[in-house]
Amino acid sequence: MEAGIIPTRRLKGKARVVVRGIRWLAEGDAGLKILKTTYLRHMTVPRVRSYVPGLDEILFGGIPERSVVLLSGGPGTGKSILGKQFLYNGLKRGDAGVFVALEEHPVAVRRSFRHFGWDIAQYEREGKFAIVDAFTGGVGTAAQRERYIVKQVDDVHELSDVLRQAIRDTGARRVVIDSVSTLYLTKPAVARGTIMTLKRVIAGLGCTAFFVSQVSVGERGFGGPGVEHAVDGIIRLDLDEFDGRLYRSIIVWKMRDTKHSMVRHPMEIKDGGIEIMWDKYIKITGSSVRIEPLPKEEAEAMRKAVEDVEKQPAPKKIEIEEE
């Protein structure tokens, strides 16, 4: 495998160590000498498991670590539920988390977690979970009890500072911002800059994030070109009406550094949260709705990818943010 020459360190005299693909070479006056050759079948991408039924399968193992993923869709499609489920599933397995509330009062956020039986109170008490209140501006008795408050809710730099502190205090590995489109809905020109500012903080501190993005009913976009190209992944949730009935579905539109399903999957919102029928696909046309099983080889590849990730050791969190 030839991948160019990458200098790594110098030896004595004129020699240096280089890597050419999978061969380690010593280069000196006598020419090149192979130090060792390592044969690898593939590069392993560190992943964060969502543990949302079916989501890791359609992502062939999970979300690439440090990714910022846009959860896009119209009202009622399950975006906020998916984000909260991602956080709670992490909390249960030792991943601390932060939820940024831009459109809900923190009291309502806690209530919505409880609605699905997701008890976040213990994790807040233990300092493993935090809500960043970017909704109230600190106004109101209940809001004054919050630890992390953004006073100027349209100031992305203040939001970044408060979010950075919450991540460091909790040791968070997962972040959800709901809804990020609130920050630039009336100022589309600043959308990309807003996303990149938040992304630098989140990825730099070793976190993986879901950004909830609103679109209008019937709109096929994801949040605008500045946003769509800045994020690492896009997951689209939809709610389609056919013959008087609503059908839920999910599709991965984009995800850097991983293979992903290329079809739309049916999904449901149940008492315990979202469940994705990862081994089926849904096709909605003007005259019919069809739910069919995936080809066996594709379903098997998804299942095996998840099993392979489960065998990997959990990656350690490393902060690389430059102040």
Could you give a quick summary of the protein structure above?
The chain has 2 domains: 5-37, no CATH class; 47-311, P-loop containing nucleotide triphosphate hydrolases (Rossmann fold, 3-Layer(aba) Sandwich).
Distance from first to last alpha carbon: 38 Å
Shape: globular
What is the name of the CATH superfamily of the largest domain?
A: P-loop containing nucleotide triphosphate hydrolases
Name of the CATH class of the largest domain: Alpha Beta
Strand content: 25-35%
| pLDDT averaged residue by residue | 86
Low-pLDDT regions: 1-25, 37-42
Q: Roughly how many Å is the radius of gyration? A: 22 Å
Main β-sheet, spatial strand arrangement: 10-9-8-11-12-7-13-14-15-16
Written account of the structure:
With 323 residues, the protein is of the alpha/beta class. The chain has two domains: 5-37, no CATH class; 47-311, Rossmann fold (3-Layer(aba) Sandwich), CATH 3.40.50. Helix content is 26%, strand content 31%. It has helices at residues 55-58, 79-92, 106-115, 121-125, 156-170, 191-204, 225-230, 296-311, and strands at residues 5-10, 16-20, 23-28, 31-37, 47-48, 63-64, 68-73, 97-101, 129-133, 148-149, 174-178, 208-214, 233-242, 245-255, 265-270, 273-276, 280-284, 289-293. The strands form four sheets. The protein has a ten-stranded mixed beta sheet, with helices on both faces. Strands 1-2-3-4 form a four-stranded antiparallel beta sheet, with no helix packed on it. Strands 5-6 form a two-stranded antiparallel sheet. α5 (156-170) runs parallel beside α6. The chain is globular. The two termini are 38 Å apart. 38% of the residues are buried. Residues 1-25 and 37-42 have low confidence and may be disordered.
